[in-house]
Design brief:
Keywords: Membrane, Transmembrane, Transmembrane helix. GO terms for molecular function: diguanylate cyclase activity. It comes from Polynucleobacter sphagniphilus. The model has no long low-confidence stretch (mean pLDDT 80). The chain has 395 residues and is α+β, with helices and mostly antiparallel strands. It contains nine helices and 16 strands. The protein folds into three domains: 2-80 and 205-223, PAS domain (Beta-Lactamase, 2-Layer Sandwich), CATH 3.30.450.20; 82-195, PAS domain (Beta-Lactamase); 233-385, Alpha-Beta Plaits, CATH 3.30.70.270. Helix 2 packs across helix 4 (183-223) and helix 6 (264-271) packs across helix 7.
């Protein structure tokens, strides 16, 4: 299953229908690796119970970046351990007692064969011991003889191969007691087995990576505003109902900000549409620098309007964030031709609700929109809370 995860680590779309709810994956290894270094072509995650499906899975992910190189999320292929085991079983003849282990170079487990039913069946101490022995070897592949000890109860031959490209260490362990024939024959058997296993895994990773690149390109276009790089109205209409449903379930407040650039038509008439585009981009940057929590999101609503959704945020928290956005926009410097440095300001409407079944998503947006109109009618460059008088300019 392919999964699109935004820059905050929240699932936005899947290639297979799953429960319609907010899923936060911002702490996953593959996400943090790519967010911290979006120049990486891909990252492979450790073996986990997937939050979207509840299955034992690992992930291969590729970053999404916009035309300026800014990190905008990831596309990840979620691979059920059982599915990969089936693929391997088609290529490999089962050998009694053999175990395939794929470790990430950081020590986390990406895959095991035979497949465990859940994480509790994995002997992590044993896995780490094998991983440590392999890392002591000078060669990138070979066979080591591990004697029985308290960490490793059965003497075994372990064939290994490392891949710097994929950051993987693949091992196949075979207890000596099940090895038939002389050492040369058993070594050949292990070499063939590890080679087939390794090539099968690399091919699967490569296939998933190529798919993810194609999907990532289409999703950037589908869910992003081409000018500002923010999410677009289509994204908002797709995702906001999930946040609304979660707010009903949790009974926690949810807030919305509706933001409009003041006197934007006059701005365009005075300076031209190219300069107007620069102003839109500058306001977008000012907004998104404060919308940083994993579940918060902002989008370009249309024209010179923007919307921000703040789950688990009451009126006080929404006012605090809106005030920071107001000040950031005021401090924004625009450098136009002929040494022109116009100022831009915004009007912000705020609405907060503890949602119940009688409310709709349109209610919150309509309240924030009406509050924004009050702020604008009061002179702009200020915020207004729905149902309350707006503060004076500068507040």
């Amino acid at each position: 299953m392919a999964v699109y995860i935004n820059e905050n680590g929240v699932v936005q779309a899947t290639s297979r229908e799953v429960e319609n709810r907010v899923v936060d994956l911002s702490s996953r290894l593959y996400f943090t690796s790519l967010k911290n270094n979006p120049r990486l072509p891909y990252a492979i995650g450790n073996l986990v119970i997937a939050k979207t499906t509840g299955l034992l899975t690992f992930h291969i992910a590729t970053p999404i970046v916009d035309r300026t190189g800014r990190f905008r999320g990831i596309i990840t292929q979620q691979v059920a351990a059982n599915d990969l085991a089936i693929n391997l079983s088609k290529s490999l003849k089962a050998i009694a007692g053999a175990q395939i282990l794929v470790n990430l170079q950081g020590g986390n487990i990406a895959f095991m064969y035979p497949r465990p039913n859940d994480l509790s069946e994995i002997d992590f101490r044993l896995c780490l011991y094998v991983d440590g022995r392999v890392k002591q070897q000078a060669r990138s592949n070979g066979i080591i003889d591990i004697a029985a000890n308290k960490e490793y109860p059965n003497r075994s031959y372990v064939a290994y191969a490392t891949s710097d490209k994929y950051g993987l260490i693949t091992t196949v362990s075979l207890p000596v007691k099940v090895v038939l024939g002389d050492y040369v024959r058993s070594s050949s058997l292990l070499i063939i087995f590890i080679a087939l296993a390794f090539l099968s895994l690399v091919y699967i990773f490569w296939r998933f990576y190529k798919k993810a690149v194609v999907v990532a390109e289409s999703l950037i276009i589908s869910f992003s505003d081409a000018l500002t790089g923010l999410k677009n109205r289509r994204f908002f209409d797709t995702e906001f109902p999930k946040y609304w449903k979660e707010a009903i379930r949790s009974k926690n407040p949810i807030s919305a900000l509706f933001i409009d650039i003041d006197h934007f038509k006059i701005f365009n008439d005075d300076y031209g549409h190219d300069c107007g585009d620069q102003a839109l981009i500058a306001v977008a940057r000012a907004i998104e620098q404060f919308v940083t929590r994993p579940l918060d999101f902002c989008c370009r609503w249309g024209g010179e309007e923007f919307a921000v959704i703040l789950p688990d945020t009451d009126e006080h928290g929404a006012i605090s964030l809106a005030s920071e956005i107001l000040e950031a926009v005021r401090l924004t410097k625009l450098d136009f031709p002929n040494n022109q440095h116009p100022k831009i300001t915004v009007s912000i409407g705020i609405a907060s609700l503890v949602v119940n079944q009688a409310n709709t998503t349109d209610d919150l947006i309509d309240m924030a929109d009406k509050a924004m109109y009050v702020a604008k009618q009061s002179g702009g460059d200020r915020l207004a809370v729905f149902g309350k008088a707006p503060p004076r300019v500068g507040q």
